[in-house]
Amino acid sequence: MEIRIGIINTGRELSFETSASADEVRTQIAGALDQGASHVELSDTKGNSYIVPTANLGYVELGTEESRRVGFVA
Questions:
Q1: Which end of the chain has fewer CB within 10 Å, C or N?
Q2: What is the pLDDT of residues 40-62, one digit of tens each?
Q3: Is residue 12, in this structure, part of any structural domain at all?
Q4: Domain that includes residue 20, residue range
């Protein structure tokens, strides 16, 4: 699933693929915001970690959990 995160006062967004479900990511981000945590840590499918300050979150876009199609369409 693709995640795109907009960060306040930054012209670019953070975009990466994760193996976590949309519900897992939504719960993790909402929990960090509800608890007043200073940051939220997410990881991608390649094992990279991203630490994003919660005070600077502009938006979080969760992509669909559609499996990639392989082959040709007739």
A1: C
A2: 999 999 999 999 999 999 999 99
A3: yes
A4: 2-62
